[in-house]
Amino acid sequence: MIPLHDDVALGALRRQLRLDPEPLRQLRNAFYKKRLPAEKALERLPLAQRSAFAEAVAFHTLTVHSRHDSQLDGASKLIFQTAAGKLLESVILRIQTGRTTLCVSSQVGCAVRCGFCATGQMGRALDLGCDEILDQIVQANQLLRAEERGVRNVVFMGMGEPLHNEDAVALAIETIVSPRAFGLAPAHVLVSTVGIPEAMVRFARRFPDVGIALSLHSARQAVREKIIPLARRYPLPVLREAILEATTIQGKPPMIEYLLLAGVNDTDADLQALLGYLGELPAHVNLIPYNAIAGVEFVGTSEGRRNEFAAGLTSAGFRVTIRHSLGRDVAAACGQLVQRQLLVGKGTA
């Protein structure tokens, strides 16, 4: 079947059905922007072509497996199932300011295998298609419509390494920002990567206005290798060159994500290493509290030490935010809930 975002295939279908462009534009507007279900969006087409169009076009490629709503802060975790039966996660974050952010997945599993990440414990990655990435947004939007809300920001911080699925992610972003589809501003899209240097530079060139966040987590090579095995392939000096080039292309400060782990990367030595590594980079440092995962050795840094670490960066002139972790009661950290579902499916509590 034809994905609704595929302009070329959709154009061929339109000509085959002798369908005028305007009803098709109205259908896509109703489905993507007005967040209407497929059957309502199809009403924009003439009755004579409606049935044939519906049989040829795939409006959804995922089904909702389960929904989990936080009782603490309004976050919602959605578990989707692919046609192949694989489970993946998206998280709706209802920010107190009224903005709504959707954290989407780009893969099932992740080959990076970061030691602190539940998705990394799942093993080999399976790339999601562009249509599967977009359907996470479509279905979240349809859910939010009843609340008179819609997804305003999309962050690729869910399951998987986005730049290991570069083509599908790029096609998805083109659709997300396209006025013919979701029409989000590029500045409202953020891609988080553990650091694939060449892909980061390619991405910056292709999407100069889309945000890139680097999951650095340590500016000491030995420590970074301990928590991110892929760091052995891409040493810190190589990664810094890529950050500099991407920053030059995009003309805006890079975001540096730093997950604080007690006694691992939060010491005074770690802070000094980070300050030295960033140097004159006008970076925005996002400090992240750690959501503990069963069977994993790491422990999150205390709130007091988090604040001290932040103060050290701020005093050196860096913009610093401490991420507020949402959805703790629904295991909102990427991969946590799918991992639980898989264990339950195997008969393990």
Compact description:
With 349 residues, the chain is an alpha/beta fold.
Would you mind describing this structure in some detail?
By secondary structure, the chain is an alpha/beta fold. It has twelve helices and 14 strands. β12, α10 and β13 form a beta-alpha-beta unit. It is elongated. Mean pLDDT is 90; it is low at 339-349.
Show unreliable segments.
Answer: 339-349
Number of strands: 14
- The helix count comes to 12
Strand content: 15-25%
| Rg, Cα atoms, Å | 21 Å
Task: Compute the average pLDDT.
Answer: 90
Shape: elongated
Report the structural category.
Answer: alpha/beta
Question: Which descriptors would you attach to this protein?
Answer:
349 residues; alpha/beta; ten-stranded mixed sheet; 12 helices; 17% strand; elongated
Describe the protein's topology.
Elements: E1 2-3, H1 7-16, H2 21-33, H3 38-41, H4 47-56, E2 57-58, E3 63-69, E4 76-81, E5 87-94, E6 100-103, E7 107-108, E8 126-127, H5 130-145, E9 153-156, H6 166-177, E10 189-193, H7 197-206, E11 211-215, H8 221-227, H9 236-250, E12 255-259, H10 268-278, E13 284-288, H11 303-315, E14 319-322, H12 336-345
Helix pairs in contact: 5-6, 7-9
